């Protein structure tokens, strides 16, 4: 069970801890020029960009960012927002990007809050990216990210299941156990529409988000024998439900709801609505995520003996414990993928771990972890 005290902490922490005025430590400025070599064999990961200078609403489906259909070889993945940013040219249209490009794109295109953008970007990079080349695929594994680090690292892109921010119980993508966790799933979109009709009058709103998130978890428990819902996925699942409202609704609208034509454009065609304006203030999905979670609290866990065998995992951090999510990710995921790094790989791991820590909420007061030491 989740206590009311923990839920109160969740709301307070998620709603207020991501600050748009955070400054980057001076050591990153020094690290940016110390020992740096920009050549094909030694790619130095630049520090993340800061917040937007002008972070109000603005037209983003503009003449400089026209939608274009996919070309042969273009990569798309499980995140409709990133797919859309690539198809509008805010990200490289081939779908292979750097962390700095990704942070800039989600801020400029959807006005995502800086710290939230940093954390999810470097979580994806550390779990699914190529740390040797500083490139990550927004979809599946590709040679376009360059030679991969040694096993057990995967550099599998954001479609890689169960490591980073993406995972099971997606709203409109299938679970990885069924063979395709990144393509548009028309059956699930019809479920999405049905819940929007029943609970939102034909729109996706906060009530729909809470009910459909719960339904998506129960669906995976009942159909996926390998269903896993532990940190960080047990947190990011609620954030993605919230960001549909926070980021994909036109910034000029006074109602926080998404119509189904716009939803289909994002999910299937990776296309912003015509004349689309981004949110009027930086968004992170955190206040709404806490409300969605509290409607149907779900403890982290997994199916342990086939379908309908969901068992809580007491070793996984919960949504009320952001520092636990951070430490779980570093100690389990990152060290599991990189048990004994050396040379450039070790250096880039240290730097990327510095960068993800910049995305931890200030109010949480998380202890910074240094599993590979410091530069």
Taken from the alpha-carbon principal axes, the silhouette is: globular
Q: Major β-sheet, in short?
A: 3 strands, antiparallel
Order of helices and strands: HHHEHHEHEHEHEHHEEHH
Helix share bin: 40-55%
This entry's quaternary arrangement is single chain
The gyration radius over C-alpha positions equals 19 Å
Strand order of the largest sheet: 4-6-7
Q: Spans of 5+ residues with little confidence (pLDDT < 50)? A: 1-40
Mean pLDDT: 88
Signal peptide: 1-23
Cofactor: heme b
GO molecular function: metal ion binding; peroxidase activity
Organism: Ephemerocybe angulata
Task: Tell me the layout of helices and strands.
Blueprint: H1 4-16, H2 26-31, H3 80-87, E1 96-97, H4 99-110, H5 114-128, E2 136-137, H6 186-200, E3 203-204, H7 206-223, E4 228-229, H8 233-248, E5 258-259, H9 260-269, H10 286-295, E6 301-303, E7 310-312, H11 322-337, H12 343-358
Antiparallel strand pairs: 1-2, 3-5, 4-6, 6-7
Helix pairs in contact: 1-10, 3-9, 4-5, 5-12, 6-7, 7-8, 7-10, 8-10
Features:
41% helix; mainly alpha; two-stranded antiparallel ribbon; 7 strands; disordered N terminus; 375 residues
Describe this protein's structure.
The structure is a single chain. The protein has 375 residues and is mainly α. The chain is 41% helix and 4% strand. It has a 3-stranded antiparallel β-sheet with strand order 4-6-7, with no helix packed on it. Strands 1-2 form a two-stranded antiparallel ribbon. A hairpin with a 6-residue loop joins strand 6 (301-303) and strand 7. Helix 4 packs antiparallel against helix 5.
